[in-house]
Design brief:
By secondary structure, the protein is α/β, with parallel strands linked by helices. The protein is built from eleven helices and nine strands. Strands 1-9-8-7-2-3-4 form a seven-stranded parallel sheet, with helices on both faces. A two-stranded antiparallel ribbon has the order 5-6. The structure holds ligand BJW. The site of ligand BJW has 36 residues, from helix 2.
Length: 256
């Protein structure tokens, strides 16, 4: 069912839910000023070619180009702030068992107050670079403040002198075991999954809502646009993350 207003049935389901998963994608952070990937005109893939920037092959071809792009995105995320939707998710976690499963490589859920141990980052983090060779973590310098006009050499690992790479998951790479295990366990054990701001096109993450539905969870989608998932979920609310999530959490509170 698709709705333009908050459906009272969604409030009832959310109020009754004891184990909740918020499954977020790039649209979750859009109103903080972080570009999505696939939105027409504003998405990153409108300006940049993913095969040149978000694959291990791209890194092997031109690591300085890829590093510069991620340094720009890291700086951009560092300078923005979480919005009311991120804060509403954190507030909801005070009242129920909550897991935030995010495809986002930003830290806005955590900065809004979601406890780190409740957030599973399926596609890694901009703030966790690591050595490509030995895997040792490398401290993030927070990226750069202006979009680089040319390549930037990645730093050298302080343990083995290998190349440091962004701590994100590129196409063709496996998801981090720990995050994936936590995400699938939470999906299969929740009463409610709120899917917010994802086009649900990238697997295996995109399979999580149907996995949750198969084990009996209600699935609510918050997204201003239709996605491939929309016709398979119980409720679709055509609104944005910064509008929908605070309204939903307030309605649950008001109903209690
Ligand atoms: C709002 C809003 C607002 C706007 N409020 N909403 C064929 C079938 C199945 C799988 C594959 C296949 N061919 C290849 C694969 C595998 C591949 C894949 O899925 N490819 C697809 C493109 C088909 N997957 C992988 O490679 C994954 N690994 C893997 O599968 O390993 C095993 C394997 C290896 C080799 C072959 C096969 C299997 C890894 C995927 C890694 C994804 N990495 C990226 C980049 C991360 C680093 C970085 O940030 O640079 O992750 S790609 C990019 O897409 C990023 C995102 O996390 C991910 C998902 O995007 P998301 O979040 O959904 O954003 P958008 O932009 O797509 O959507 C935004 C949505 O928000 C829209 O719906 C808007 O309407 C909405 N919105 N404003 C609420 N205010």
């Amino acid at each position: 069912m698709t709705a333009l207003e908050l459906d009272p049935a969604v409030v009832d389901v959310a109020r009754a839910a004891r184990r909740v998963v918020v499954f977020s994608g790039a649209g979750m952070s859009a109103e903080s000023g972080v570009p999505t990937f696939r939105d027409a005109q504003t998405g990153l893939w409108e300006r940049f070619d993913p095969t040149e920037l978000a694959t291990p092959e791209a890194w092997d071809r031109d690591s300085a180009l890829v590093w510069a792009w991620y340094q720009w995105r890291t700086g951009l995320v560092r300078r923005v702030a979480p919005h009311a939707g991120h804060r509403a998710v954190a507030e909801w976690a005070d009242r129920t068992r909550m897991t935030v499963v995010t495809q986002n490589v930003d830290d806005l859920h955590e900065r809004a107050g979601s406890p780190t141990h409740t957030v599973a980052h399926l596609h890694g983090s901009l703030f966790a670079p690591r050595c490509r060779d030995c895997g040792a973590p490398f401290p993030s310098d927070g990226g750069v403040d202006v979009e680089p006009t040319g390549p930037l050499s990645p730093p050298e690992c302080s343990s083995c002198r290998g190349q440091v790479r962004p701590g994100v998951v590129w196409f063709g790479e496996s998801l981090p075991d720990d995050a994936w295990t936590r995400a699938t366990a939470a999906a299969e054990d929740c009463d409610l999954m709120v899917v917010v701001g994802t086009s649900a096109m990238v697997y295996p993450a995109a399979g999580l809502p149907l996995r949750a539905a198969r084990t009996g969870a209600a699935i609510v989608e918050i997204n201003p646009e239709a996605t491939g998932l929309s016709e398979h979920v119980h409720h679709t609310w055509r609104t944005t993350a910064a509008v929908g999530l605070p309204a939903l959490v307030a309605a649950i509170g008001a109903a209690q």
